[in-house]
Every structure is written in C-alpha cells, then in structure tokens.
Amino acid sequence: MIDSGVLLNLGVALGIGLLVGAERERSKSKIQNADGQADNTLAGIRTFTIASMLGAITSWMNFWLLFAALLCVAMFAAVAFNVRRDERLGLTTEISLLFTVILGALAMTTPILSASLAVTAAILLAAKEPIHGFVLGIMTKEELNDFLILAGATLIILPLMPNATMGPFNAINPRNLWLVVILVMAIGAFGHLALRMVGGRIGLPLVGMASGFISSIATISAMGHRSRETPSLLGSAVAGGVLSSFSTILQITLILFTVSQPTLKALAMPLIFGGLAILLCGGALTLNAMHRPVTDAGKVSQSFGIKTAFSMAGIIAIVLMVSAELNQWFGQAGLVIGSAFVGLIDAHAPTVSVASFVANHQLAAADAALPILAAFSFNAMAKVIAAIVSGGKVFAWQIVPSLVIQVAAVWLGWLAF
C-alpha cells in the first residue's frame, strides 16, 4: 500500500510540472523558427510535467537515481540547445527544466516550499517583458548601483555587525547603528520610487507619512537630502518630513493603548492637540507643494544619500553615549532627564519604558505624562538637527515652524487639561 502522504506529494509534483509547463508552452508559441512557424522544438507543458514527475519518483526511490536523472536531463537540454543554436533564445527554458526536476524531488519532502518556489518561478517566467522593460528602459545605471549598495549593506554587512554593546558606558551597539544607516537609505530609495511612480507633488508626502512609522528622524534626513539634490522638490520634501511627525503621534498613541491605557488617558488631549496641529501643517504644505511647478524631478539620479545615512548614525552614537552617562549619574531619579535625552534618538523607547512603569504600578499615570512629553520634545529637537544636517538652512527653516507648532500644541494640551 502507498501512503496517502506520498500520493499527495506526487500530486504537488504533478501540479508543479503543469504550472511551469503551461507558462513555457505559451512562451514558445510566440517564438518562430526560420520558416516563420511556431518553434515546437522547445520544451512545453508535457515535457515539464514529465520532468517534475521524474524528479519526484526518482527522489522517492533513491538519491543516486535522482542524481542520474538530473544528469540525463542536463545532457538532453544541452544537446537540444546546441542543435537549436539560435542567438535570439537564451537558456531560460533549459534551466527551468532542470529546476522543475529539482522542484519535483523537493515536493516529496517539503511540498509547501516546493509549490511556493514553483509559483515564484512561474511568475518570473511570465513577467519577462515587464522585468526586462523595467531594468533596461526605466531603471538607470545609477539607480542599479544604489540598489546594489543597499542590498550589500543589508545582506552582507549587517549579518557581520556584532550585536553587543561596546564603547564608552557600553552605549554603542554596532548592529543597531548600521540598521539606522540601512533605514535612512531605504527610506530614500522608497521616496525615489514614489517620485518616479506618482510624481514629487504627492509622492514624497505619502512616503513621509508612511516612513514616519519607522523613524521620523530618518525620514526627515532622507527628505532633506532629496530637497538638496532637487531644489524644485523642496515643498514636497518639507511636507513629507512634517507628515512623518504625525505618524510619530499615531505610533505613540498605539503604544500607550497597548501598554498602558491609563497613561493614554492622561495624555489624550496633548496627543490630540499635537496630532491635529501637525496634520493641518502637513496638509497645508502638501497643498502648497501641489501648486508649485516641478521642472527637474525627472533628473533625480541618486536614490539616497550615503553621507546623510552615516551622518545620522554618527549623531545617534553621540547621543547614546551622552544619555548613558546621564543615566549613570542620576539613575532612576533622573527619569525625566533620561527620557528627554533618549528622545533625541527615538520617542517611542522612553514611551514604552514609562508606560511599563505605570502598567507595573511603579509610577502613577499622571506622573508619566511629563517624561513622555519631555522625550517627545527632545525628539523634535533631534528632527531639527537632522533637517539642518541633511537639507541645509533652507529646508530646516521651512520644517522647523511646523515642529514648533506641534510641540507647543502638545504642551498646551497638557497644561490645559
């Protein structure tokens, strides 16, 4: 008797062959031979289905039998390619045929992974024209280089970074600082993509609001670099930077709702006041930017600024050391001072810490408002520094008034209620 699981895995292998083979069958129907007819020498749905089943059955029987089957299929594919000798055709079909044999074999042990890889391969094969058109016709050489830099920073350098505190007062974590570098570059690349797709008038404000949930400081740094590179995008970049601060308010609200609802109740009016103030400022700046001409947005070549990313990481490293020193001097008694200086890096971390004290009944909800508001205010100061460093005085002077209005509205809400 054959186990039902084996039959199920064989069915997955059959589906894989049919899926990839169906795509290749449609693809070869578009290719014509020297006589102007469809080229039937290429592998189609039947060949791919049999290849997948071959891989499944041979792997089920014996590993060396699978190896022999792969070797035979590779030899047949090489002979077929050599006979065809058409410079217009590549090795895609032959490589896909070998890959299908491997997927069929994989289906006998991990069918879900095998099916997922088959769907991914079919999508890549079917999207030949859009992918080639994007890489050759839309993506520039500079954008490709930036993508490779970002990929290398994420996939090669990040795993090598030590994930441990070191340096003065054990305040520096190299992995976390490198994550900041990657974050600033990724936000810049995200903004560049939105700029290419929907234009600068609305693209950068949308990117700013979305990226603000990750880091408003990093978003403002990326927007400042964008405005320095393309001055006609200054208005949209300022709007994006301002709207990222609205995301900060939303994220603090969500954190307090999750960690300590009494603290959220104590800070309800300051958060409402600050959120409405920055949303109105950002909306007005976005509307103003939409009426400004963008003449050279298409000339933007660089996706992100590497110098901006490293400058941001350096500033954060300095703040971390100063904060650690203050915490060592003042201890728990300096909760407000410590929260304020940590806010120079991130407003969310001190919010979580203080809200946790309230949740653990170590601090009253009313007493939690001041440290959180101090962290939020110092976080706004860090945004000003990031704006000056990345975008210069012109960018900073346009973004600072909105930040001042937001901070004033937050404190007004606290004092009034």
Could you tell me the radius of gyration in angstroms? Answer: 29 Å
- What best-fitting shape do the alpha-carbon axes yield? elongated
- Name the poorly predicted regions: 295-301
Strand content: under 5%
Separation, N- and C-terminal Cα atoms: 76 Å
Helical stretch count?
Answer: 17
Structural class: mainly alpha
Mean pLDDT: 78
**Most strands sheet:** none
State the helicity in percent bands. over 70%
How many separate domains? 2
Number of strands: 0
Topology as H/E string?
HHHHHHHHHHHHHHHHH
Structure notes:
This protein has 417 residues and is an all-alpha fold. It has 17 helices and no strands. It has helices spanning 4-29, 45-61, 63-84, 92-106, 111-126, 128-138, 141-160, 174-198, 200-211, 216-229, 234-259, 261-266, 268-290, 306-330, 335-342, 348-359, 365-416. Helix 14 (306-330) packs antiparallel against helix 15 (335-342). Mean pLDDT is 78; it is low at 295-301.
Quick rundown:
With 417 residues, the chain is mostly helical. It has helices spanning 4-29, 45-61, 63-84, 92-106, 111-126, 128-138, 141-160, 174-198, 200-211, 216-229, 234-259, 261-266, 268-290, 306-330, 335-342, 348-359, 365-416.
Using brief descriptors, characterize the structure shown.
417 residues
